Amino acid sequence: MGTLYLVRHGQASFGADDYDCLSELGRRQCLQLGIWLRERGIRFDAALHGSLRRQRASYEAIAEGHGEMPAAALRPQLDEYDSHALLAAAHPGPLPTADTPEAYRRYFQLLREALQRWMLGEIAPAGMPAYADWRAGIVGVLDEIQRSHTGNVLLVASGGPISTAVGHLLQTPPEVTVDLNMRIRNSSLTELAITPRRLMLVAFNHLPHLDHPEREGWITFT
Fold it and tell me: Are 62 and 34 within 8 A, CB to CB?
């Protein structure tokens, strides 16, 4: 029995003109994860990531820290949803700039509402598929891994695909899936056991590689 390790990308550049870029801290988070995996003798038969730059750069930092990672396969189904399109569809008009703690909370409250409405089929964000189709792409990648691998697999994605994968396994309602999404931390590990019949959740959103006093300030959510 192998393990599928779902990893959320490292800290990106929230609030910058180009969010899809790892911060220096984000790179260190993922480098440390690779070191942690190597030190515990965890080897991988396969690796996958989405097409976003922050996902690819996270994988590259993990691979650098690990030293023995396989070449990663590209799966665009693992890309994150378009938060700007979601917000525009659900909340027409100017949105608050997340430049204060209060505005930051308001931004994510609005995003939470937009996600739920998309999942329920109440809005159709420009340039995005229906939620059922987006979810089907993620489930398809999980099915591919379950059919094709019996060893360890590393999958680097974003909070949306990871929470959707966990929600699929646990059959959670939309509001719970969104809650999972909002709590996934950068470079966190979610582990699924790979068996011939199904995938099973073992651990969710943990940061063993950052469990050290010197890395206490490395824990981030964006």
Answer: yes
